Amino acid sequence: MKRNRGGIRMLLPIVLVLGTTAAAVMASDDERGEYGERGERGETWVYGGHGADAVLPSGAFMGEPVGSSRRGVAPVANELYQEDCGGCHFAYQPGLLPARSWDRMLGGLADHFGENAELPGDEVKVLRDYLMANAADASDYRRSRKIAGSIMPEEAPLRISATPYFVRKHDELPRRVVQDNPDVRSFSNCSACHTRAEAGSYREGEIRIPGYGRWDDD
User: Taking the model in full, what pTM does it have?
Assistant: First the structure.
């Protein structure tokens, strides 16, 4: 009896497509929220910090930036940075802004959001080296790459809350839970709501807004 090899060849692509689709459907909602915000397989991602397009391979997970391997942002790993910056406010991870933003910030420490935060030259050099090497556009952490990709190459925002990625993530939060909340007051107060912010994790399931509890934007 002859085998229907043509029929087998026709079925293989269908099986592969169904298998890949099922894998995406079986992914948890939390994973889809983390990786699937920007579209489906094959989408082009433009990283502002690199000025080049990166096209997802056909087998990549939905919306996952090419070249990234870890979730969130890298936690702070520099004692001087933690001491100099974390002594006055939350020590924002370098992966929350691109290198050009940190460079601009270090060049204006005499007027750091209305305060004089000038430091000795040798300390500024250490901080600059650390920030440049771990900035959003130099990181392999997924959220950092998304932040970098949302910013136009010619832009160097000083406020993390001004980045398009941050704005999109927080645009549905009403004033009453942030600015009018005495335990929060500002979007810059990351650790007030993100329970694992110091570890570089900003996942939705870990958010607890003071006075409101877990936030669900559905």
Answer: 0.68
